[in-house]
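worker-3 :: picked PilZ domain-containing protein
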Amino acid sequence: MHYKRKESFRYTFTEPCKATFRLIKDANGLSEKEISKKGICEIIDISPHGVKIFTEFSIAIDKQIHVELNFTLDESPIDLIGEFVWSHRKINGYEYGINFPEDTNTEQLIINELKSLRRKSINVQK
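worker-3 :: tokens ->
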């Protein structure tokens, strides 16, 4: 599988973005039996097609588990379902790469939120 880690538009946060996640066995059928309790994670970087998150939880990504992410970049809450593509063990937790399915509306929402966030950070620096 080809990963898009080097795609041209990837925003890395200076301070990680707080988020919550829930594991889903099947991205198409969301019943209570298929969703775990919410866990806390941090978004390290994001693009319109995926994220890198950090959490203290070990997740067996080889079990075809999907993940529901809930976060706010600037003002609009974003809820996405993605698929784990890689994992790395870190000293105090784990990093995971998550791809999002192609969705023009969601991609545009992420881009607009990042632009707004960036504009605000530039105005604060002036």
